[in-house]
UniProtKB/TrEMBL annotation:
Coiled coil residues, start to end: none
Ranges that cross the membrane: 35-59, 71-88, 100-118, 125-157, 163-183, 324-341, 347-371, 378-402, 414-433
Keyword annotations from UniProtKB, A to Z: Membrane, Transmembrane, Transmembrane helix
Protein known as: Glycosyltransferase RgtA/B/C/D-like domain-containing protein
Amino acid sequence: MTFGDSQSYIINHIIRTPSYPLWLDFFEFLFGTEDYLLCVVYFQIIISFTSVLFLSLVLKKYFKLGKITFFLIYLILISPVYSPFTYIKQNLVNQIGTDSLTYSLFLLYIGIVTKTIFKLNFKGLIYILFISILIVTVRPQFIFLYIIDVILIFYYWFKSKNIHKTINLVLMFTVFLLSASLYQRTYNYFFHGVFSSIPPLIGTQLLVAQLYLSNPSLDIQLFHDKKQIDFLKWLYAAIKIREKEASLSQYINDIMPYVPIKKSEAVTLENIYWTHYMDAWRACYWKVAAVCYLCNPAEQSYIESDQLKTSIALKLMKANYFEFIKLYLGTIVSWMSYYWSGYYYHYANLLGIIYTSFLIIQAVILTFIFLRTRKTLFFIFPLITTIHFANYGLIALFEPILLRYSFYTDTLQLVFQVLFLRYIVISVFFKLFK
């Protein structure tokens, strides 16, 4: 029921956004200290089935699905929660963590988005904006939904040409954003005595990839602030020790000064972006970058430490800009196909290139058709692809794209590809037998 991250939610740790810890507190208030976590799990089971059914019914209505397609969609959507395939199953509902609640809210968001796109209405967009803000206060990863909100506001103007209501949507969105920031600040002040709106973990996550790419002897010369220099020296020394402990010393710099790779292996995108970056991230760099959170429990020290890490990370990113872009794009492409390629990751890079190219080409063509025809059907598919890439793009800024972060949009993308294939088959069928 609990796992590594559970305790930080249970104790309202400062690195967590407020909604899920407060949700746990609410259940503890209702059911007492002994059984409340079990009640949380029961609730997560109920809401997961409900949200999957809700989105499935919405898609059934607006895409006019038959029973077989409906059940196939339902099975795909429920697969991250209950699946016989180990590499897909996340055991979400059985864990105390944000994933289950976030997945359910995300499906609710997509369901309302679908309804609002097919049947444009102002109230639906208000719901969309509110739910996106709520999801971000549960799991900050979903900040990429703000991009989708802006696209939907523009879509509303494009379809309705109602300037007055569009301005109202922009104002409402701004109010929601400010309210969410105040909510986070108030929560942190009440529980931790710090009036801060950003969970102090961003700098740590941003720093990991930059440490992986960094050349210690060269990059240390970029810094002049004593605090930054001392901390960076400590990081480099800790990484060196950790590399030896984790048997990562077998990797050498054959590719470029900053990116290690096994000498015995051919230089391929897979080796760089899949095997070594993931192994190094898990075994070494993340553990070194995050260690300060274990050293000093004072809330203010978390914020100061994270600010220091952010300043170092941004300077290293600027110094190793091209290497980071290469790592960033390679990470996205390499992981793009993992959800449906399973453990056959030796083919992941090739499949990722093919799948990424297909999604981009599909989105461009359908967007062009939508602009020509203004048919809703041709808007929703590229929108879902945009959501998918926005999620991957955000994750890759901070770390390798683990399945526990990507399954939300992986699952959704698979569902809409099934719907797209069905649309193509039906269209061809009617043309042949018309």
